[in-house]
TrEMBL record:
Every HD domain range: 278-388
Matches recorded under Gene3D superfamilies: Beta Polymerase, domain 2, cca-adding enzyme, domain 2
Enzyme class: transferase
Organism: Saccharopolyspora hordei
Name of the protein in question: Poly(A) polymerase
């Protein structure tokens, strides 16, 4: 016998109420944990005739039971007055954000940021507001990006201020805006990327009206600098649920403007040319790479380089797709094309040079292993694999394993066995030869001495030749290395001063 709709509704309502009570208990517990600093500050401001509120992400995180030691406050006190109230209380004070009404301070292991109520106005051309200080908590909260960030707790009384149903949205794990999302995003288009970032970090779902506004206004993101886009994208990828954030970017069309190579991987698949949807495959590889990352280091920081490489490893496929006779599909050299594309996009997003180099190298190397699974590699090939990967080898192991998304269990098991075998061989050869430090058997000084040459291009070419030999044949004795150097020199027409 099925339950009546009213029974389901009341059960759902009861569950939401229970979750709301739990959230409020979390907030109290979290506040008690950091209470000395928060309450001292509240009492200090109240005694001076001002109001002080814990606000924004700090309240949200307290309700979620994950409050850290960085606390955000807002107050009616003007910045210079805030500085006076912090003096003599804080161990350290900094005022780099004072023109925006923010001062920072540090006391007893806790960092606090206190911002005067804001009532900013935007020209809707750039994103930097005309900073205006406000006089009410109501005016301050309505200008915040999302309802779950628009709650406050007054101190020291601990009275809860929730004017935009932020608690209800938090309990429902919903992301919505205090004002109309169109107005919020027109004021600051970066908030659209922040929506995707919060979906990734918190596991929330964007409300229908937020998704509609993001879709309609995606082009407005062009007002935002690449540097700010990059920061949000990196935070999104390092969140707990990055796939959700990426999907929101693609589904709303924002990715068309900030990472167009991603939606371009949605290759059309017809009944004659079956191959994986490269976009969906890439999301699965991202998921699997993160699983491997967490398994290897459960308490470690998220690996941005690995996650970028997993997401972008196949971006060269659309440009290299060829339909072969008989209905096959090929993507020859997509790793080469993809590495160049990854480098170009990451450079446009102003990523640091080392991140660009590492991600593009991983994209370039991710297919190399498949030659191993087709047939036995020589020790020389294994050495080259390790040498070319260099310090990226642990990440390359994870990326290659994550790249197996076949539903064919026998094929997946065979690939797994092949990679297990490769890792075992790497370990064996590394133990014998110290693979991490593959160098020629003669150094530059010895080359100059043996050939009687000064520093210059000849030394570099000889060194490179000896390193190639080292990779091919493993360690050589000194006599063999000297003989090989002399043989190479004679082939180059270099007179060898043999004794």
């Amino acid at each position: 016998m099925s339950s009546s709709p009213s029974h389901h509704d009341s059960a759902a309502s009861a569950e939401l109420q229970a979750r709301e009570r739990q959230a409020q208990r979390n907030a109290v517990v979290e506040l008690v944990r950091v209470a000395p600093v928060a309450e001292e500050l509240g009492e200090r401001f109240t005694a001076a005739g001002h109001r002080l509120y814990l606000v924004g992400g700090s309240v949200r995180d307290a309700l979620l039971g994950r409050l850290g030691t960085d606390l955000d406050f807002t107050t009616d006190a003007r910045p210079e007055r805030v500085r006076e109230l912090l003096s003599g209380w804080a161990e350290t004070i900094w005022d780099t954000g004072i023109e925006f009404g923010t001062l920072g301070a540090y006391r007893h292991g806790t960092t606090v940021e206190i911002t005067t109520f804001r009532a900013d106005t935007y020209d809707r051309v750039g994103r930097n507001p005309e900073v205006d200080f406000g006089d009410t908590i109501e005016g301050d909260l309505v200008r915040r990006d999302f309802t779950v960030n628009a709650m406050a707790i007054e101190l020291p009384s601990r009275s809860f201020v929730d004017l935009h149903d932020g608690m209800a949205d938090l309990v429902a794990r919903r992301l919505d805006t205090p004002a109309a999302p169109e107005d919020s995003f027109a004021d600051d288009p970066l908030r659209m990327l922040r929506a995707a970032r919060f979906v990734s970090q918190l596991g929330f779902t964007a409300s229908d009206r937020v998704v509609r506004a993001m879709t309609d206004m995606a082009g407005e993101i062009a007002r935002i600098t690449p540097e700010r886009v990059q920061v949000e994208l990196s935070k999104l990828l390092c969140g707990e649920f990055p796939r959700r954030g990426v999907e929101l970017l693609v589904d709303t069309g924002l990715a068309d403007h900030v990472l167009p190579e991603l939606p371009a991987m949605k290759l059309e698949i017809d009944e004659h040319h079956q191959h994986k949807d490269v976009y969906r495959h890439s999301l699965t590889v991202l998921d699997q790479a993160i699983d491997l990352e967490r398994a290897a280091d459960p308490d470690g920081e998220p690996d941005l380089v690995l996650r970028l490489a997993a997401l972008l490893h196949d971006i060269g496929k659309p440009a290299t797709r060829r339909f072969e006779p008989g209905g096959g599909v090929s993507f020859h050299h997509h790793e080469v094309v993809g590495a160049k594309m990854a480098r170009k996009r990451l450079r446009a997003l102003r990523y640091p040079k080392d991140v660009i180099n590492q991600v593009s190298d991983l994209v370039y190397l991710h297919l190399r292993f498949h030659g191993y699974s087709d047939g036995q590699w020589t020790d020389s090939a294994v050495r080259r694999y390790v040498n070319d990967a260099g310090p990226l080898l642990p990440r390359l192991h994870k990326l290659v394993r994550a790249d197996c998304t076949t539903r064919n269990k026998r094929k997946a098991a065979a690939l797994q066995r092949a990679y297990d075998d490769l890792e075992e061989r790497i370990a064996r050869i590394a133990a014998e030869e110290d693979l991490a430090k593959v160098r020629p058997d003669l150094d530059g000084n010895e080359i100059m001495q043996l050939l009687g040459v000064d520093p210059g291009p000849v030394v570099g070419k000889a060194w490179k030749h000896l390193k190639e030999l080292r990779l091919d044949r493993g360690p050589l004795s000194r006599e063999e290395a000297v003989e090989e150097l002399y043989r190479w020199a004679e082939e180059q027409g270099i007179e060898v001063p043999r004794s």
